[in-house]
Structures are given as structure tokens and as C-alpha cells.
Amino acid sequence: MSKYKRILLKLSGEALASNTNIIDPVILNKIVDIIKSVLNQNVEIAIVIGGGNIFRGETLTKTGINRITSDHIGMLSTVINALAIADTCQKNKVDALVMSGLSIGGGVCNSINHIHAKQALKKGKVIIFCAGTGNPCFTTDTGAALRAIEIGADAVFKATKVDGIYTDDPVKNPNAIRYNSLSFDEAIEKNLQIMDVSAFALCRKHDLEICVFSMLENTNTLSDLLKGKLLGTIVRK
């Protein structure tokens, strides 16, 4: 039995993309299989999704678009991704609910309400949070930390392209060494940049551990982590 009762999974928008599709249906189905593996362990799961596969706000500012407007565009990109994940969940008989940090009408998705989110999670629904914190100038990492705190998650699991946190970029430096565990202070002081400082600071304040791991190469990794296998890198006090 997993020691976790409720988790928050942070996914980048880039994770949904392939060489041929901005949102790849094959990857969407992999994500739903991973969600099912979590639910099968009687663990509640919420997701925070990024939007970098469609638009990155910080990139748009280089084109001369106002920073605030750029961030709003980036937040709307996360809504698109959240709807795609939710639709794939529903097709695979997984009940999912999208909640947005930005108010969006027309029956597209719900506004974030932590009470309603917790009630839905207890009923076995998957909550997909989008639009970050709902405010410009904050990353979706900070949004993930905030939502995890709001719903009372036991931990944040951040899926990345590599299998943990390293002393250096392992893609560029084959001699980089992976950490098994780190303190929040170490992660901030070493400027490891796997998550932004605001996200680390929020999790440290609320004693919320973070696990950084690679998810899509092996769809059993998250399930194995929940079973207690020592994979990825844990950041805690």
C-alpha cells in the first residue's frame, strides 16, 4: 500500500508533444494509463499542466509582446492541454474535471475552488489544474506548489526529461551525478533550476516534499515510486 493518499503530478506542456504533433494522442493515452495506475493504488491524483508545447510566455516577450499579455497567452495554452488530457481521460472511462486559475465561461472549464477540488478527489475524480496561479509572472511550478498546498497533497511529483536532479545538465555533461535526495536549502543554494525558487520556498514552508523523476520513458515509474521504490530525486526539509 502506498504511503501517499493524495498526490499532485506536475507535467510540462512539452511532455505532450512529439515530432509530428503539438499534442500527441499516443502520449495522451500513455498519461491516462499512468493516471489509472495511480488510481488503482487507491491514491488520489491532481495534475498541473504547463503550456510550453503551444506557447511559452517568456518566449513571446522577445517578439515585443507585453510581458503580462505574453503570460496570459501562456496560461491559455495550459487550458488547451488540460482539456485534451481530460477528454482522453473521459474516453478511457476516467472521470476528470478541469479547473482553471483564469475565469473562463461558456462551460469550458470550472474556476479553481479548493473545497470542490478536494470533494471531487475523494470521489475518485482526477483534477486537472490549468492557467498556473491565475496571475502573470509566476511559473506553473509555483502553480503546482500552490495547488498541492490547497488540496492537501502529500507530495508533488514533477515529471521531467531526466530521471532526477543532477549536479549538472546530464544531456550536456555525461559526468553529471544524480542526487538521491536534497534539502530545499541545498536545492536553492546550488541553483539547480529544476524548479523555480518560489516553488521550492512554498513547499519548504508547508513541509511538502517534491519528487523529480522521468515518467514517459517507463510508464510504470510513478506507480513504482508510490510503492516505495527509490527512484528519481526527493527534495525535502
TrEMBL record:
Binding site for ATP: 10-13, 52, 56, 160, 166, 169
Residues covered by the Aspartate/glutamate/uridylate kinase domain: 5-214
GO molecular function: ATP binding; UMP kinase activity
InterPro entries for the chain: AceGlu_kinase-like_sf, Asp/Glu/Uridylate_kinase, Uridylate_kinase, Uridylate_kinase_bac
Pathway stated in the Swiss-Prot or TrEMBL entry: Pyrimidine metabolism; CTP biosynthesis via de novo pathway; UDP from UMP (UMPK route): step 1/1
Any one Gene Ontology cellular component term annotated for this protein: cytosol
One Pfam family, short name: AA_kinase
Keywords: ATP-binding, Cytoplasm, Kinase, Nucleotide-binding, Pyrimidine biosynthesis, Transferase
Biological process (GO), any one: UDP biosynthetic process
Subcellular location: Cytoplasm
Gene3D superfamilies, per database record: Acetylglutamate kinase-like
Reactions performed catalytically: UMP + ATP = UDP + ADP
The protein's Enzyme Commission number: 2.7.4.22
Function: Catalyzes the reversible phosphorylation of UMP to UDP.
Subunit structure: Homohexamer.
Protein known as: Uridylate kinase
Annotated organism of origin: Candidatus Vesicomyosocius endoextente
Encoding gene per record: pyrH
